[in-house]
Amino acid sequence: MITNYFKVVFRNIIKNKSYSIINIFGLAVGLASCIIIYLFISYETSFDKFYAKSGRIYIVGVEEKHASGIQHSLGTQFPFAEAMRTDFPELEAVSRIYGLQETQVKVEDELFNENNFLFTEPDFFKMFDVEYILGDPENNLEDPQSIIITEELAKKYFGNESPIGKNIKLDNTLDLSVVAVIKSTPNNTSLPYNAIASVNALTEDYLGMDMNRWTVTSGSNATFILLPDNTSPESVVNGFESFKKKYLRERDVEINTYSLIPLTELHNNTLYSYMTYTTGGETIFIFGIIGFVILIIASINFVNLSIAQSVKRSKEVGIRKTLGAFRGQLVKQYLGESLQYNFIAIVLAISLVLALLPELNNFLGNGTDLNLFSSIYVPIFLLSTFILVGLITGIYPALILSRFNPVKMFKTDFSNTKKGFFSLRNSLVGIQFIISQILIVSVFVIASQLDLIKNKDLGFTKDSIVNVQLPEPDISKMEVLRTKLLSSPNIKAVSFELGPPTSNALVQSFAQFDINGELKNEIVKIQPVDENYINLFDIKLLAGSNFSRYVEGDTLYKYIINESMLKQMNIVNPDEAIGKPISVSRYRGEIIGVVNDFHQQSLREEITPLVMTNFITDFFENTSIKMSANNIPTQIEYIKNSFAEIFPGYIHNVEFYDEFLGQLYESEERIFTIIESFAILAIIIGCLGLFGLMSFIAVQKTKEIGIRKVLGATIPNILSNLSKQFSKVIIISNVIAWPMAYFVMSKWLEGFAYRTEINVYIFIISGVIGLAIAILSISFQAVKAALANPGESLKYE
């Protein structure tokens, strides 16, 4: 009996090749999409869970409330961790981690550019699992000049030699000795590292900031804690109130709120970022919804096409029933056939996934490693999907086929489907079109948002500018370098600053100013720049004048503010701000200029009050160079040689500024592209459903169409008759889908500081596209039925 069922399935596949290909391939593509989305969600939610104590590790989050809004950070003051050890003795471990994301390493006479170097304390090893290859695990950074490197760096620097005891030098400043070699972290971590050094190796000269003051905060200096078993994080958070009052200034107590963020949730929290990228919970949710929708659409399509084919198999059912087959046997047979189709589809889906994963991992970047065999949960997911989809897609067609009346089957009377407007058929069409319309609107909104991010006016020019990291903030060398560079006729301007616009290279401090006789203290962003910065980036000066060259020892400090700072000072006319006294940190001076609001951070952040200074030259870390468009390679070579001459002993990388800006949104662009692709795929799969339904209707109405043609009906008449009921369903589906789409995409856009508008034309275009898709899907079968020979139709059985 079982063998016979397999033979029947094989014969049906051969007999109905086009149906079988559409049915199996449509389901396979849907299943492949769901598997890929599952792997993506599984990977993005797995970050840091491989640590044995991950459930008890937390990082201190800082929320600062200002007049300009709320700012979130993981940066804490340098004395913060030691103070927590003293004030929270119940904690199992406390460790500060200073993350150095870019550094130059010198090994003997060779130079290397590296990233992800951590400076930390021995308590780090009580929290995080570290696998040693060489060295003593008991001697964890006890020597302030010690460093632990990964096996990749050991091989890179020392080949097959033992690196233990070998010296390396960071940024021509820190001399460190290798004491151990360890395994690298997996890619799915929020704390990637290539080396771990003692935090005591850091000096104020190296960092350029006071490491003992509670008024100095670095975004790179984070505090991690390990809670004892059965200890609630709320007990620590409740103690932060008295902790703040003990160590912070009164005005800092008012604006700062400390929280504890679970390490396992850090990667999916877009409010905070530390050493690597984040993927927000809303993105994970959107992927999950799209995966679920694709699975539902693919399943509905399978059901639709199965029911459409069931009419052709009605005589088979009639013969089986006449020969004594019970309904239960028929249900088992057709359910078994559905599972066989699903098995073929899932094997094909797995093959598609295996073929696509290498390219997808490469496309996603960030070291993403989607692996079909990475977890025991993947086979469980595949098996569950196979059984669930097999049952969903098999039960209803099996029940429909098994309940057919043998007598009616031989009389070719199969039109026992409910004809009301709210029939199952119309409901399936409606569901598919509601989903399709939501997806079409979503694709337009996502594309519009991505276009806004890529093409928004940032308030400055970005063309023909390159950036080179400044090795040392030495004023005399900087001036020699500037003169050297400007001696080339192809170099138009040179500026030194903490960082170019959108690099988030800012200093945070207090500004004190007068509003209507009342002295105000507000947190502001400080941007150290020189006198060429504004002109080089073509930032618009609304009032006042630009900086003149700063002379060492000049105590008449000058500031230029942006429009947001102007509003915070309650000044409407930019000219009124010129000459106003203002103190930034402990430096009192006056405002000499006002510039337009330009983006100092990425478009994820709103433009905040900004104060530009030209006297904090110790913070100059970047060189911006504006070039002509002629002979770019020669200019790049000249720039490198000039840097090497003035600052020997460093690697000098020249980065095009427009490429830097493009990299800021690379991850978002990749995610948006994948979401769009899956949404379009879901729409295409949905078309197969309409094709199947029209097959079903065309078969049901074979004789009716023949009679209409004999009575003089034209092809447009028949096409109109077959599709008019679906047209009503499509219109109603649009009315239902549009508010849902607007709500969903409005919620999604809330995650962006600068967002596109959801205009009416998006819904109109989406409706037209949806209708066009429906007409094409319906027309194929309708025209095919209308063109059939009426004589053949009337003797159809």
Give a structural overview.
The chain has 797 residues and is an alpha+beta fold. It has 26 helices and 26 strands. The strands form four sheets. Strands 1, 2, 4, 5, 6, 7, 8, 9, 10, 11, 12, 14 and 15 form a 13-stranded mixed beta sheet that branches. Strands 18-19-24-21-23-22 form a six-stranded mixed beta barrel. Strand 10 and strand 11 form a beta hairpin. The chain is elongated. About 1% of the residues have low confidence.
Secondary-structure topology with pairs:
Elements: H1 2-15, H2 17-44, E1 57-66, E2 69-73, E3 76-77, H3 80-87, E4 93-100, E5 103-107, E6 110-114, E7 117-120, H4 124-127, E8 132-135, E9 146-150, H5 151-158, E10 167-170, E11 174-182, E12 195-198, H6 204-207, E13 217-218, E14 221-226, H7 233-247, H8 250-255, E15 256-262, H9 263-266, H10 281-310, H11 314-322, H12 327-364, H13 377-402, H14 406-410, H15 424-455, E16 465-469, H16 475-486, E17 491-497, E18 507-515, E19 518-528, H17 533-536, E20 541-544, E21 557-562, H18 563-568, H19 574-577, E22 581-584, E23 587-595, E24 610-613, E25 622-627, H20 632-646, E26 654-656, H21 657-664, H22 666-700, H23 702-710, H24 715-749, H25 760-786, H26 790-794
Parallel strand pairs: 7-12, 9-11, 19-24, 21-23
Antiparallel strand pairs: 1-2, 1-14, 1-15, 3-13, 4-7, 4-14, 5-6, 5-10, 8-11, 9-12, 10-11, 16-25, 16-26, 17-25, 18-19, 18-22, 20-23, 21-24, 22-23
